[in-house]
Each structure stands twice: as structure tokens, then as C-alpha cells.
Design goal:
The protein has 422 residues and is mainly alpha-helical. The protein is 82% helix and 0% strand.
């Protein structure tokens, strides 16, 4: 009993920093068969989080040890944590090279299976939420909504009000950014915020709803209200000392400043965020913000810096095996070369972006890519190619219209079924 108490006290003190003593102690806890399985599993999780920012090889090694421990002890909570974390750390693994999405999705679905086996609604909700986020991030809006609906069911059934408010905010985000349906998005977002108010919730999760409301007002081109909500979200994240989300808000504030022509202020926000992402090993976020910075350089009349920054974004996305980020970086760099009237180089990158977009079936991006290829072909006098890309543009546009109509039909059917139940 004394050993268990010591282990619990040790984990309670981890928040004060990871000294060499703490890391050595974590290794001892994880290795000792005399410690409870729960304590050993927690030690593996803490070690993985430490090595993520300090030593990639050690991180991979401890994932192997964690899986070996999970199998040997046949301990389901450890399996849940193993698969959940591995989905987050995909860039560390060789098998995720190429398209990382199947790697992420499959590991999250494994984690979901163990969460259900454990009959833990909070764990089930967490994984459905992560699946929502990952599918939305990678342009799979219909799948994102399906996972979000499952999360919503879990939250309602178990009267998990904080979680319900959170997932309603995520649904609002998907409707706004994924389907461009701002009216439906705002409805969900206001429901989310009203629940947070009703339960007097002031945690960092409320910041997500506030920032998504800001996104809606940005679409309305009401930049004053958009900035107001983004700053409210920033204050929530600051109060919660959530640095990751604070820096993400810097990106949104930068985009708002950019739309108003305030490029220097926008660059200041973005550079602060990039410094944070570099320091804390978030390559995907770093690449995204480098693309934004490249665009800001181009708009402010500094094409050489735009090219240099764009090259950095491409290199980081390649290293992180992030195909979606790489595609966005190629498109941005193609635009920079086009602005410099280097149409051949612009086309080369657009073709590479096209291959990735086709592979991932990202039709919204393909539409933009074919427009670039069409315009470049016209500029170089390649009218046969211009005709080809013009037709490709129309085909993609027709596909987008068909997908939108299918989604609308599904929405009407879902609404009908809901009203029938009510």
C-alpha cells in the first residue's frame, strides 16, 4: 500500500517539471512489475510526452515498450492510451510515410474499440471528437459530421454537458469551414455557447466555440466582430495557460489583419506562433503558418522572402509526411512563382499539388489547382493544355455541386427523421 501511495504522490508532482530525477523515476515505475498496471501505464504516457520534444528515437522505443507492456499485462486502459497517442505521434513512424491519414484514422479506431470495451463514455467521446477533428482537418467533412454525431449521442445520453457544448462547437466549425453553411454553423455555435453559460463553464474548451463564432463573422466580412470573438477566445486560452491554442488564435488574428491590409501586424502574429511551433515540435502547424507567412510576404511586396518561406513549408511538410500540408504548400508556392511570372515553375508545383489532391479526393483544392494550371498554360501559349485544364476545372466544379446536393439531401432526410421522432 505504501508503494502505491508513493507512486500516486509522484505522479501528482509531475506538473512541476520534468527533471532528470523525474525521468529516471518514471523509467523505474514503468519497468517495475511490483507497481500497479495503472501507474506503469501512466509512466509510459509521461515518458512518451517528454521524449516527443526531446528525442524521437527514444519516443519510438518507448512506444514499443508500451505496446509490449500492454500485451503482456493484457491491460485494456494501456491499449487505449497506446493507440490514442500513436495517432498523435504519426510523424515518428515509418509506416505513416506517404498518406498519413490511414495511419491516424486506423489508430484512433483501435483506441475507440478499447474505449467501448472499457465502457468509459468519456474515453469514447474523446476518440469520436479526435476523429471529427482529423477528418475535418483533412477535408473529409461528411465523415467528420458522422463522428461528431456519435460524440453528440454519447454526451446527451450520459448528460455530459461540457462535452456536449464542445462537440456542438465542432459541428458548427464543420458546417462553416467545410460546407460554407454559416446559418447552420452559427445555430450550433450559439447552442454551444449557451450551454457553457448555463453550466457556468470557464474552461479552455469554451475558447473553441468563441473562435469558431469569430470565423463565422469573418465569412460575413464583419471584421470588427470577428476580431472581438477571437480576442475573447484568446483571453480564455490565456487564463487556462493553453499556449498551443493561444498561438493558433494568433494565426486567425493574422488572417483578419491581412484581409484589412495590415500586413506587418499580421506577420508579427504569425512569426510569434511559428517560433512556438518550432520550439515545441509541432511540424504540421509550423508548415501551415509558414504558408500563411509566405502569402503575407507576397502580398506585402517581398517575393524573395515569400519563395524562401514557401520552400521551408514544403520541406517541413515532406519531413513530417503530411500530404495535405504539402499539397497546400505546393499550391501556395505555385502562386508565388506565378506572381513572379515564372509560369513553368508554377506549373511544375501545381502538377505535384494536383497529384496529391486527386489521391486524397480534395475537389475544392483541385478547383483552385486547375485554375492555376489553366492560367499558366494561357500565359505560356499552351492553348491545348489550357483547354484541357479548363475542362478539368468544369468537371471538378460539377463534382462539387453534386456532392453539395447529396449532402443537402442527407440533411433533409436527417431533419425529417428527427422531426418524426419528436
Amino acid at each position: 500500500m505504501q508503494k502505491i501511495v508513493i507512486v500516486i504522490l509522484f505522479f501528482g508532482n509531475l506538473c512541476f517539471g520534468q527533471s532528470k530525477y523525474n525521468i529516471d523515476s518514471l523509467k523505474q515505475v514503468s519497468a517495475s512489475i511490483h507497481n500497479p498496471d495503472s501507474a506503469r501505464a501512466k509512466s509510459y504516457v509521461a515518458l512518451l510526452r517528454f521524449y516527443r520534444n526531446n528525442n524521437a528515437d527514444s519516443c519510438v522505443t518507448y512506444f514499443e515498450k508500451f505496446l509490449e507492456f500492454s500485451k503482456k499485462q493484457n491491460y485494456d486502459p494501456a491499449f487505449y492510451e497506446y493507440y490514442r497517442l500513436k495517432a498523435d505521434y504519426f510523424s515518428f513512424f515509418e509506416e505513416s510515410k506517404g498518406d498519413a491519414y490511414p495511419f491516424i484514422n486506423s489508430h484512433l479506431l483501435e483506441a475507440l474499440a478499447y474505449a467501448k470495451k472499457l465502457e468509459d463514455p468519456k474515453k469514447v467521446f474523446i476518440i469520436y471528437s479526435r476523429l471529427t477533428q482529423e477528418n475535418a482537418r483533412l477535408g473529409r467533412e461528411n465523415e467528420a459530421l458522422e463522428f461528431a454525431r456519435e460524440a453528440e449521442k454519447v454526451a446527451r445520453h450520459h448528460e455530459m454537458w461540457e462535452e456536449l457544448a464542445y462537440i456542438l462547437g465542432q459541428i458548427g466549425k464543420v458546417y462553416n469551414l467545410g460546407f460554407r453553411k454559416t446559418d447552420i454553423a452559427l445555430e450550433y455555435l450559439l447552442k454551444s455557447d449557451s450551454i457553457y453559460h448555463k453550466i457556468n463553464f470557464e474552461g479552455y474548451q469554451r475558447g473553441f466555440t468563441l473562435t469558431f463564432i469569430g470565423d463565422v463573422y469573418e465569412v460575413f466580412e464583419d471584421y470588427e466582430k470577428a476580431e472581438k470573438y477571437q480576442n475573447e477566445a484568446l483571453m480564455v486560452f490565456r487564463t487556462a495557460k493553453n499556449q498551443y491554442q493561444q498561438n493558433f488564435i494568433f494565426g486567425k488574428l493574422a488572417l483578419l489583419e491581412s484581409k484589412q491590409g495590415h500586413y506587418e501586424k499580421a506577420k508579427s502574429y504569425i512569426k510569434d506562433a511559428i517560433t512556438y511551433y518550432q520550439k515545441n515540435s509541432f511540424p504540421i502547424e509550423e508548415s501551415v503558418f509558414l504558408v500563411i507567412l509566405s502569402d503575407l510576404y507576397l502580398k506585402s511586396g517581398d517575393p524573395s522572402s515569400a519563395l524562401k518561406t514557401g520552400d521551408e513549408a514544403i520541406a517541413i511538410s515532406q519531413s513530417a509526411n503530411d500530404e495535405y500540408g504539402l499539397m497546400k504548400a505546393y499550391v501556395n508556392q505555385s502562386k508565388v512563382y506565378r506572381a513572379n511570372k515564372e509560369y513553368k515553375k508554377s506549373n511544375e508545383l501545381a502538377v505535384q499539388a494536383e497529384a496529391l489532391a486527386q489521391k486524397m479526393e480534395f475537389y475544392e483544392e483541385l478547383k483552385e489547382i486547375y485554375e492555376l494550371l489553366y492560367l499558366n498554360s494561357e500565359n505560356t501559349g499552351s492553348f491545348k493544355e489550357a483547354y484541357h485544364y479548363s475542362n478539368a476545372f468544369r468537371r471538378v466544379n460539377d463534382t462539387l455541386v453534386s456532392r453539395k446536393n447529396l449532402h443537402n439531401a442527407k440533411e433533409l432526410e436527417a431533419k425529417y427523421q428527427t422531426e418524426k421522432k419528436e
